[in-house]
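Quick review question:
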């Protein structure tokens, strides 16, 4: 039986053993973790750092979780910039932050989340409240960021930003992620917020489970300043993944995709990957981005996806937002594209989900060859689309909501329905189903 370590970032002491709540350490890195061990962070803790996990072994994963009462322990990828004494008026209503940043600024989060800033591409473009510009945007992706750079953050505000907003968090490029986990790792009941790039990112993850976690305000880093393209995903599995499960988690305000598997020329083929019982809200590109080179035995099931394309990724933008496939629409519940090795494509299951409103895109949007789409099994999903003209793009053409039966005649979405799922109160973010919902067996299951 493995050991359990307790971490209290505020009141812990690294001279202690960490083997009980009363003897908690302050920094998890001091724990001598072995396969089968558990590392628990005190609820209510805030850590402005990355969670670097250690590998477990077959049948003996290393688990990272929470203990105590209160809010989930939070890993933040941002630095505070709310001190009014640090803001200097550069010109009328345009303020300059008097301070340096350890890495590129990618997003501004105001008042702990109700609003984000709108990136503009020069100081002269700052015209409305909350618009911002950073002189170093895009330099990290061009390999031009060096320690000690003296770039400047500018923000349009009717009054001193430190007084206009109750808090300002600057999401940074940082270490490109807020958490990792390569082999035999479990992350549960943790929160990851305000990363300028990704939440969880791992190359060739194997036997990794992420459950009951919270991912918010992730992404916004500039991928190409010339093309004005930004990026950032909540969970990105890169160059392959085997036996990975993401379940019972919440994804809210993600610049690009909630969950995705991607890879380069030497990528392994992801297999046995499960995305289930999750809630996705305001994911700018997609809740689930399916991207090659290929994949097989992938399950996207019992998820609830709301307002695809919403959130901070569309603030101040004119649809369609910039992307690698611009001017095609962006902001889908499921986005399927870029298959490089079709001969290795296996079954992909997208079923028992609720797809609720995609005002800028579609519920399902595929640009694959229709012959390759036959490896995708779509069934028993609930669609609700009143805010746009596009319901799905499959089998080589677009389908409007009023063409739902014609869309089903292609062989996709047997047993699926087009109906209001009847959430308890979607305006207040209560996405549980009412007793008379027409889709009681679809969407995220109640925990």
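Suggested answer, residue by residue:
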């Amino acid at each position: 039986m493995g050991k359990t370590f307790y971490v209290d970032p505020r009141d812990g002491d690294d001279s202690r053993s960490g083997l009980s709540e009363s003897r908690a350490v302050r920094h998890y890195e001091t724990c001598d973790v072995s396969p089968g061990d558990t590392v628990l962070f005190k609820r209510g803790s805030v850590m402005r750092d990355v969670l670097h996990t250690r590998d477990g072994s077959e049948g003996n994963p290393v688990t990272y979780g929470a203990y105590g009462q209160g809010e989930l322990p939070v890993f933040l990828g941002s630095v505070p910039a709310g001190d009014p004494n640090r803001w200097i008026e550069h010109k009328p209503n345009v303020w300059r932050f008097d301070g340096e940043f350890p890495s590129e600024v990618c997003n501004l989060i105001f008042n702990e989340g109700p609003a984000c800033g709108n990136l503009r591409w020069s100081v002269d473009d700052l015209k409305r409240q909350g618009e911002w510009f950073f002189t170093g945007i895009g330099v990290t992706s061009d390999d031009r960021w060096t320690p000690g750079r003296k770039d400047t953050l500018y923000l349009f505000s009717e009054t001193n930003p430190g007084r206009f907003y109750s808090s300002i968090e600057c999401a940074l490029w940082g270490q490109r992620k807020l958490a990792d986990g390569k082999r035999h790792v479990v992350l549960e009941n943790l929160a990851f917020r305000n990363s300028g790039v990704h939440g969880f990112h791992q190359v060739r993850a194997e036997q990794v489970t992420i459950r009951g976690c919270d991912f918010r305000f992730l992404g916004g880093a500039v991928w190409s300043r010339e093309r004005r393209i930004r990026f950032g995903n909540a969970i990105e599995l890169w160059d392959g993944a085997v036996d990975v499960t993401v379940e019972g988690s919440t994804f809210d305000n993600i610049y690009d995709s909630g969950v995705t598997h991607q890879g380069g020329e030497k990528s392994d083929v992801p297999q046995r990957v499960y995305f289930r019982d999750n809630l996705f809200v305001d994911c700018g590109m997609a809740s689930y981005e399916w991207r090659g080179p290929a994949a097989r035995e992938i399950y996207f099931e019992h998820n609830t996806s709301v307002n695809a394309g919403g959130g901070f990724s569309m603030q101040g933008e004119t649809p369609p937002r910039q992307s690698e496939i611009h001017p095609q629409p962006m902001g889908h519940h499921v986005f399927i594209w870029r298959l490089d090795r079709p001969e290795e494509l296996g079954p992909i299951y997208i079923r028992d989900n609720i797809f609720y409103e995609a005002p800028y895109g579609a519920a399902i949007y595929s640009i694959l060859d229709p012959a390759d789409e036959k490896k995708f099994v779509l069934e028993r999903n609930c669609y609700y689309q009143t805010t746009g003209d596009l319901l799905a793009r499959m089998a080589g053409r677009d389908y409007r909501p009023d063409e739902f039966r014609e869309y089903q005649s292609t062989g996709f979405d047997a047993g699926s329905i087009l109906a209001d799922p009847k959430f308890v109160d979607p305006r207040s973010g209560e996405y549980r189903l009412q007793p008379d919902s027409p889709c009681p067996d679809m969407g995220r299951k109640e925990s």
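Why it works: The chain has three domains: 4-76, 78-172, 183-433. The radius of gyration is 22 Å.
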